[in-house]
Amino acid sequence: MKALVLAGGSGTRLRPITHTSAKQLVPVANKPVLFYGLEAIAAAGITNVGIIVGETAAEIETAVGDGSELGIEVTYIRQEAPLGLAHAVLVARDFLGDEPFVMYLGDNLIIGGISGLVEEFRRSGPDALILLTKVSNPSAFGVAELGPGGRVVRLVEKPRQPPSDLALVGVYLFGPAVHEAVRAIKPSARGELEITEAIQWLVDGGYEVAPHLVEGYWKDTGRLDDMLETNRHLLESLEPAVRGVVDESSTVVGRVVIEEGASLVRSTVRGPAIIGRDTRIVDSYVGPFTSIYHSCAIEDTEIEYSIVLERATIRGIGRIEDSLIGRDVEVVPSAARPRAHRLMLGDHSRVSVATTP
After folding, report:
1. Residue 33 belongs to what H/E stretch?
2. What is the C-alpha to C-alpha distance for residues 347 and 350, in angstroms, rounded to an integer?
3. Quick one: CA torsion of 115, 37, 109, 174, rounded to 10 degrees?
4. pTM for this entry
5. DSSP structural state of residue 148
6. Which residue has the higher pLDDT, 141 or 276?
């Protein structure tokens, strides 16, 4: 069995972070989202992995390499434009051959992995196994309608009037019949080859499409709120470890990981939280559900329920909450008069400024 991992999307919902980096490499709990999927694939006993890449190919290839550190063997497959999930299957035809495969969206995360799903697929042998979960906003997803006996009867991509609240999770298992399906369908109104239409083609053709209701935690991390929530869930399972330096004037409370080379000076970290390698926290408070990546500097600041990417500097900024702060960002007070907020922001940025009454 093989795996096809999609890491070619542009990540428009996470701009401006994804103007300069791949959305699949934004870290949650100090690990790139993509790596959780690759580790789940390896844990399921699948070692032959194709990764679909696009404009951010060089960054993905640098991060993952040949896959040997993750226990997999990686083949990179170029998709010239984001023309849909079914199009990704189409361009991966030579790599996939006629073997069954799991297709995993690189910005999705399922806590608990996919080993049981892979075993179920191997044991029952349907033409497709689709994962479904109940959501409150099904119009934002591909949606499945089930008939008598739980049989899949219809799939619709981002419907205005959803036939159910069962959204397709970004993990699919396919047999070779899907290759005929992706060749048979036409581009949607969005100009994409939709995987929902390919699966519908299988349903209409009498192929066996089996549903599996996901009861554990799943999240598409394509939006800020979803990424912060995923970060929270992952941090809740941290095993505390202090590998860096904590001075006698600092306090560490709860599930906290302080990685090698990190240092706390006159500061408090209240978990669950993780402080990355070579990060320095001085005269600051790091609150629950916060991930601070490698080589950052946090001084005279309170920060909580946030993600800070590598080499960011935050100094003298009161309190920060519910935030995603990008690579090499500098957030510092201005000494200039008149006192004012001075901002240099990229396209699609969003800033919430606390004001005094």
Report:
1. helix 33-43
2. 9
3. -60
4. 0.86
5. G
6. 276
And the tokens for 128? 């497709």
Nearest to 341 by CA among 353, 330, 349: 353
User: By the 8 A CB rule, do 87 and 81 touch?
Assistant: no
Q: Could you read off the pLDDT of 151-169 as tens digits, one per residue?
A: 899 998 888 888 899 988 8
Do 263 and 244 touch, CB atoms closer than 8 A? yes
pLDDT digits (tens, 9 = 90+) for 248-260: 999 999 999 999 9
Res 98 pLDDT > 90: yes
CATH C-level class of 238-331 = mainly beta
Q: What is the largest CA-CA distance in the chain?
A: 73
CATH number of 2-222: 3.90.550.10
Give the number of other CB atoms < 10 A from CB of residue 253: 12
Is the predicted pLDDT of residue 334 greater than 80, yes or no?
Answer: no
Q: Do the beta carbons of residue 280 and residue 263 sit within 8 Å?
A: yes
The number of helices, as runs of H, and strands, as runs of E, in the chain is 8, 28
270 and 303 in contact (C-beta within 8 Å)? no
Task: Break the chain into its structural domains and give their ranges.
Answer: 2-222, 238-331
pLDDT at 16: 47
Cα 256 to Cα 275: distance, rounded to the nearest angstrom: 8
Burial of 226 (0-12, 13-18, 19+ CB in 10 A): middle
Return the SS3 of 229: helix
Provide the pLDDT for residue 77: 96
Between the CA of residue 65 and those of 43, 76, 158, what are the distances in Å?
18, 10, 35
Instruction: Calculate the CA 245 to chain-centre distance.
Output: 30
| Residue 328, amino acid | D
- Secondary structure element (H or E) that encloses residue 333, with its range: none
As a whole number of angstroms, the distance between CA 150 and CA 23 comes to: 35
Q: What is the DSSP letter of 30?
A: T
